[in-house]
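Reader question, answered in our methods column.
A reader sent in the components of a multi-part assembly and asked whether the whole thing could be modeled at once rather than chain by chain. We filled in our standard form and ran it. Here is what they sent:
COMPLEX SIZE: two components
ENTRIES:
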Amino acid sequence: LVVAQPLAPRKRPGGRSTRVRRAVFDATLELLADGGLASLSIEAIADRAGVNKTTIYRNWPTKTALLLAASEDRSERQIVVKQTGHVERDIIAFLDSIAANITSPLGRALVIATMEPAGRGATAKEAFWTHRFKAAEGLIRSALTPGASKEDVDAFTERLIGPVYLRVFVTGKGVDGRYIQRLVRTALATAR
Amino acid sequence: LVVAQPLAPRKRPGGRSTRVRRAVFDATLELLADGGLASLSIEAIADRAGVNKTTIYRNWPTKTALLLAASEDRSERQIVVKQTGHVERDIIAFLDSIAANITSPLGRALVIATMEPAGRGATAKEAFWTHRFKAAEGLIRSALTPGASKEDVDAFTERLIGPVYLRVFVTGKGVDGRYIQRLVRTALATAR
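And here is the structure of the entire assembly that came back:
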C-alpha cells in the first residue's frame, strides 16, 4: 500500500490503494452521517470498510487526519473551481458550491468534527487548508491584479469564504444566492 | 425573580436577580472551562451557583440558551466598541478584542459549544447575534456612508469578523495584529 501521504493522493484508478482509500473514506463518511463524531471509531471504520485497523493507522495516524482526508476527497468532487472566462460568475459558482457543501448535514458534520484539532491533527488540518486554498488559487488570481502575492490571494479567498462560514457555523443565519452575489460583487469591486 | 428574557437583562445592580444571574453565569463558565461541554449539566451549574435547578430552567430553558446568555454577558464586558473619532483605530480595537476573546480557551469553548443549536436553542442563538450586531452598529455605521441600510451594516460587520472566525475556528491559521490591520484597511477602502 503506497498511500504514504494521506492528503496528497497518488491516484491509480482501479489499483488496490485506490480501492482501500475509497472504502475507508466512504465508511468514515457513512459512520459520521449515521452516528456523529462520538460514535466514530477507527475500529468501526475498519470493520465497515473491510480493511485492517493497522492499514488505517498506517495511512492516517489520527482520526482528525482521516476525517480531513475524507473531507479533502469529498471537496475535490464537490467544490466548483472552474474558469470559464467570466470571473464574477465563476467565483459565485465557487462560493455556491462551498455553501451547498457546508450546509449539507455531512459537510457540516465534517467541519465541526475537525474544529478541535490537537497534536498531530493540527498538521493535517494545515495541510488540508493549504491544499484547498491551492485548488482555488487560479480562480482567485483571475479576479486580482496580475502578479498578486500569495498572501493577497489567500486574504481575498478568506474575505469571500469567511462570511459564508460565519453565517453557517457561528451566527446561524445561513446564506442564499442573493447573499453570495452581493458578497462576491463587493469583493470584486475592490479586488484590482 | 424577574429575568424573563435571558438575553435582554434588566439590570438592577445588587438586586437578587442580578446576583442569581452572576452566580449562574460564573458557574456555567467555570464548569465549561474545567470539564468542557460534555460534563456541563444544569444540575452541576445549579449546584455550584447555589440556586435551584428550576430557577435555571425558568430563565434559560435550554443549555444553549444559558450558554448564550453567559456568553453575551461576557462579550458585553470584553468586546471593545468605542467610538473615539478615529474609525480605523476603533474598528481595529473592536476586531482585536474579538480575536482575543475567541482565541482564549473559554471564548473558543463558548463558540464551539453553541455551534450546534437545535430546537429552542436556535432562537436564543438568533437573539444573541442580533444583540451582538446591534452593540457594534454605531461603530460600524461610523465607517459607512450616512444612512446605510441595516443590511449593509450587517454585511460589513460580517466581512470584518467572518475572516477572523474562519481563521480561528476553521482553517486554524490564527490571527495577529498585522492581519487584522490589513483586513480592516481593505474593508474601509471599500466602505464608502
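What stands out: DSSP finds nine helices and no strands in chain A. The two ends of chain A are 47 Å apart (CA to CA).
Send us your own complexes using the same form.
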